[in-house]
Amino acid sequence: MLFNSTEFLFVFLPALLIVFFQLARVSRRLAAGWLALGSLFFYGWWNPAYVTLLLGSIGFNYTVGRALAQGADVGSKRRKHLLVLHQAWRGLRVRMGHNLAHSSRAGRAASIALTFLVVVVGWVFFRASSFDAAMVIVRGMAGLNGISLPDMVAARTGALAPWLAAHGVVFTPGGGRDFAMTYVWVAALLPIVFWAPNTQQIMQGFQPALDHANANNSANTSPTRLAWRSSPRWALAMSVVLALGLLSLTRPSEFLYFQF
């Protein structure tokens, strides 16, 4: 069951949301528990054996998170080690400008770049079929497997091409159009990644999640035009997105959760 499958869109998702919102009126813990069970069911649809792996990962992350949160008040040797890691990460975040309220523009840029780099590298391990396959991709991303460019680049760079070849860059025939289109897409989508509001900000005037922060919080604001509201424009935009999604259901696509 994938996100673009009919059983997910027309059976699983509606049932999950209906029960979730009904339970949220009674108890937020019940709603959160139902959502957790639904998530485990979704990921176990392909192979139930992997549910145990997910439960182990959830338990480990929860235990470490609780230990880090309580690290200042405990004295055990193990938790002291966790506290050291926590303080080291805090120090790195501050040094890289994570404290946005008091950081410079350079610090904020460094913090955003570091987060983006960690997420991109993390996706490789998330999607790779094995650890060795992930390391091959990471080495390629770092240029350790060599650099290959299409002949089109050599023709466009002129006198720079021999210098690049002398420094290990290999020019191969074909692929020029795909190479150019890749970077056109990257250039077009990066502004969305860095500057577009997230879903929590778009829905800031409502309650998109349990225990959602107050909409008046300055850290949770977004441009007014991009904040969701009940209007014909948003209805039209959502209808277009829904139609495009339904029309593409029959197309096989590899996306972030393809491995599941």
Commentary on this structure:
- This protein is 63% helix and 3% strand.
- The protein is mainly alpha-helical and 260 residues long.
- The chain has a domain of 42 residues.
- Strands 1-2 form a two-stranded parallel sheet.
- The longest helix is centred in the middle third of the chain and has 23 residues.
- The protein starts with 5 loop residues before the first helix and ends in a 13-residue tail after the last helix.
What order do the helices and strands come in, and which of them pair?
Layout (H helix, E strand, L loop, with lengths): L5 H21 L1 H17 L5 H20 L7 H19 L9 H23 L3 H11 L5 E4 H7 L2 H7 L2 E4 L3 H20 L3 H4 L29 H16 L13
Parallel strand pairs: 1-2
Key terms:
single chain, 260 residues, mainly alpha, 11 helices, extended
| Rg measurement, Å | 23 Å
Structural class: mainly alpha
Order of helices and strands: HHHHHHEHHEHHH
Give the count of helical stretches.
11
Give the overall shape: extended
Calculate the mean pLDDT score and round it.
76
| Low-pLDDT segments | none
Helix content: 55-70%
The number of E-state strands comes to 2
Termini, distance in Å?
8 Å
Give the spatial strand order of the biggest sheet.
1-2
Sheet bearing the most strands, described? 2 strands, parallel
Strand % is under 5%
* Multimeric status of the protein: single chain
